[in-house]
Structure prediction request, 458 residues.
Amino acid sequence: MLDAYSLLRAMNGIREEDIVMADKHFDSPKHVRSRTKRMVTLALAAALILALGAGAWALFFSMDHRVPEPEESFRIHWEESPSGYIEWKNVGLAVTFPETEESRAVEFRPGWLPEEMASLQDDAWASRLTAERLCFEGGADFVPAYDDMTQPMLIESFAMSQFNQGGALLLLDYTAGAVTEETWVDRNVDVLYFSASIHFDANPEHDLPERTLVQNYVLLSNPEAGWVVRIGGELDLETLLEVARNLEIRETGEILRYEDFTDHFALFNAGAG
Amino acid sequence: MEDAAIVELYWQRDQQAIAETDKKYGAYCQHIAYAVCSDRLDAEECVNDTWLRAWGAMPDKRPTVLATFLGKITRNLAINRFQRKTRKKRGGGETELALEELEDCIPAALDVERRYELQEFRQAIGRFVSGLSETEQKVFVARYWYLCPVEEIARRLQISSSKTKSMLFRLRNRLRLYLKEEDLW
Prediction:
């Protein structure tokens, strides 16, 4: 029976030219020359990437998105269900990430918020920030501009490692419009953003007119650290992007792995149904 | 001395071949052996045994890249020595870590006593690595051929340790899938 030792020996099947290319540096003239040459090569590569800017970084975009087939099902663990899980089909958009062994957990705080969200601005760091209370009439934070919204803005962080082995961030019910991909080199993040909508026919029985609901989403991801931050809600996309550009993000020191999560699909819908 | 000249000394049965080999590749082979054995005396014995094996192999062989030819011999000798020493206990070190990492890639049904299957396996790994990007090759070969610690790989390639670990994790998954596609699973 094959064991790990045999597999380790079988690595001798790696071709000579590939071993030479990955040659380590030893204390010999041959290897000293290789080290110098390697450092020069790396310096040149770094300079080239800086010169190319966003174009070069874009080659390594860390988020993939697709519209699943209507019959494709996704499951999340749900103890209360007799089957032990809840299942969704007709998913509007699935966003996936690179397989990541360890993700560094992050927290954030807004560096900028719209004026009417001033009550949410403080120095506290959070892993989840909701503007839902701004929609409640009679509440101290109520903002009239948001009275037709349920969730103007929700910010949450995720770990890429949660989505290994086929996991994904899912958009339910809504249909995504054109998806834009960018890389903000100065912030060292990949960015994906889009608007999503759902249409309802008029419902005379409940006195509801024909209507289209819209939610907007911005995803920030750092593939090196393995974290993702979602800024989403019913606020306009331009405002959400401004929040994202000014969001302060820092690592908490916690490491998150695949096995730390019960579910490997998470939902986009920003708490607005 | 150029590799071709050293190889010619072996073919001429000139014992200067050993001296020249030791001078040019002694440190290299010592490093490979030590990375596996984590014991200086064991590593030295592996290197000495490597020269004996090389003397026996040339002629008939005429390797084009002497470094990897010798490195493979040293590596096998060191793994054998390590396996004998740790048969009763699993200690630690990079070899142990590499073995644990690779366990998920092992196809259970492969019978190592069937030589041609093991040869197929080695060749499949060679093809897999050749299909990787340059950075992926460097990371994979450094970890599983040279048994280099993750932190050292990260430092040499000027990338973070976490990125290195993520890359290795993805590469092992891809290796497992590749072996399945090659019907070696």
Q: What stands out?
A: Residues 40 and 110 of chain B are 34 Å apart (CA to CA). The mean pLDDT of chain B is 82. Chain B is about 75% helix and 0% strand.
